[in-house]
Amino acid sequence: MSAFILGACATVAVQSSATTQADATGSGPLEDATERPLSSTPGSDAAESPATVLALSEAPTATSPSGAATVTHLARGQNAYLGLLRMAGGAEVPLHRDPTEEFIHVLEGEGIVTIDGAEYPVSPGTTIYMPANAEVGFRGGPEALVALQVFAGPGPADKYEAWEPAK
Asked: Of the CATH numbers 1.10.645.10, 3.40.630.10, 3.40.50.970, 2.60.120.10, which one belongs to the domain with range 21-165?
């Protein structure tokens, strides 16, 4: 299975032409994730929790409305959010804008990221920077993807509150 680090920005659902929740989650440590809402992610109230140490197996995971992606909430502070995103093969993130900067690092898998009309092929080891308010989107290859995502300003991660806890 391949993986890719990608931000499913905006509240639009990640889409795939032929996908199931099992395709999106695959196998591995994310299957053991505890079901907790993003608001209970350790570090979600940085004023009360200045430091967080969290095992991946204990991090809460949520599934997109389409079932084509999951996000594991790793950390959230006053100035940033860190999540691990898995997407089914062929999944897409439609063009959208987020009010904060976003960073993505590709672990495995391939795809095409669009930033302000320019398309960039991405593969393992690629790091992506998306400026605040840039128009961005993604088209995944045929393999499932895993995405590690950082929002510099945690607000855009609020969209994940609408995702269902993973089972």
From this structure: 2.60.120.10
